[in-house]
From TrEMBL:
PROSITE patterns documented for this protein: HTH_ARAC_FAMILY_1, HTH_ARAC_FAMILY_2
PANTHER family (UniProt xref): ARAC SUBFAMILY (PTHR46796:SF6), HTH-TYPE TRANSCRIPTIONAL ACTIVATOR RHAS-RELATED (PTHR46796)
Pfam assignment, any one: HTH_18
InterPro entries given in the database record: AraC_XylS_family_regulators, Homeodomain-like_sf, HTH_AraC, HTH_AraC-typ_CS
Top-level taxon of origin: Bacteria
Protein name, per record: Helix-turn-helix domain-containing protein
Keywords for this protein: DNA-binding, Transcription, Transcription regulation
Length: 136
């Protein structure tokens, strides 16, 4: 008698292809958003239309990742603006110009969002970050 049991190859469940599709779609949508972060018109409706899905499906996709579409966009924009504010090569660019580069059209909105995200206004962050970068 053969004591080895035949091992069956992994058989994915019926939901696995759907999960893979959602992951791939999320990655595609992320790439699209990163490529269009500077567009002030970037919004859930435009993103959904560009990917031929409903806005509701887009919101569900981000909800499954634990965030909203708008909050994810805002976080990415703030991260990029923060990076640029700390870049000595961009020290001559006004803060609002950097904010506008990343889709923030109103200075007060940018300042409020930056302070809420990082606990410090953008001009204080920049002064501190650039002061540190100049030290030996």
């Amino acid at each position: 008698m053969d004591t080895h049991q035949e091992r069956r190859p992994y058989a994915p469940t019926a939901g696995a292809p759907a999960v893979d599709h959602r992951r791939a779609l999320f990655a595609t949508v992320q790439s699209f958003i990163w490529a269009h972060l500077g567009d002030p018109g970037l919004c859930p409706d435009a993103i959904a239309a560009a990917h031929h899905i409903s806005t509701r499906s887009l919101h569900r996709l981000f909800q499954s990742q634990g965030c909203t579409v708008s909050s994810w966009i805002r976080r990415q924009r703030l991260n990029r603006a923060r990076r640029d504010l700390a870049d000595p090569k961009l020290a001559h660019h006004p803060i609002q110009a950097i904010a506008a580069t990343w889709g923030f059209t109103r200075p007060a909105d940018f300042t409020r969002a930056f302070r809420a995200a990082y606990g410090i206004p953008p001009h204080h962050f920049r002064t501190t970050a650039l002061g540190r970068s100049r030290r030996p």
